[in-house]
Write a structure and sequence with these properties.
Number of domains: 1
CATH topology: Nonspecific Lipid-transfer Protein, Chain A
CATH class: Alpha Beta
Order of helices and strands: HEEEEHHEHH
Number of helices: 5
Strand content: 25-35%
CATH architecture: 2-Layer Sandwich
Structural class: alpha+beta
Helix content: 25-40%
Radius of gyration: 12 Å
CATH superfamily: SCP2 sterol-binding domain
Number of strands: 5
Largest sheet: 5 strands, mixed
Length: 96
């Protein structure tokens, strides 16, 4: 299991994944993390998702440790979103 996957699983533990409404996939450097609220899982499966967030590892680490926000990363072009932007906006409830 990757360090990123473990970290996201730890942060999201005990939280209601169904709040996302749809699946979201994070592509971080060469790693993939898929949050599937229907299945209630967070895995490294590279399946299709309603929303795909692409970000480099350093920026993702800054988002997860709170030193930068996902909104700031998006506005500066360090984070890219494809698909359902509404899901991307809800992911903060899981990762905060």
């Amino acid at each position: 299991m990757s360090e990123l996957l473990s970290k996201i699983q730890g942060i999201a533990e005990g939280k209601d994944l169904s709040a996302l409404g749809s699946s979201i996939k994070f592509v971080v450097d060469e790693e993939v993390v898929l949050i599937d609220p229907e299945a209630g899982t967070i895995t490294s499966d590279d399946n299709d998702a309603s929303c795909t967030v692409t970000v480099d590892g350093e920026t993702m680490e800054e988002i997860l440790n709170g030193s930068t926000s996902s909104q700031a990363a998006f506005m500066t072009g360090k984070l890219k979103v494809a698909g359902d932007m509404g899901v991307a906006l809800k992911v903060g409830t899981i990762l905060s």
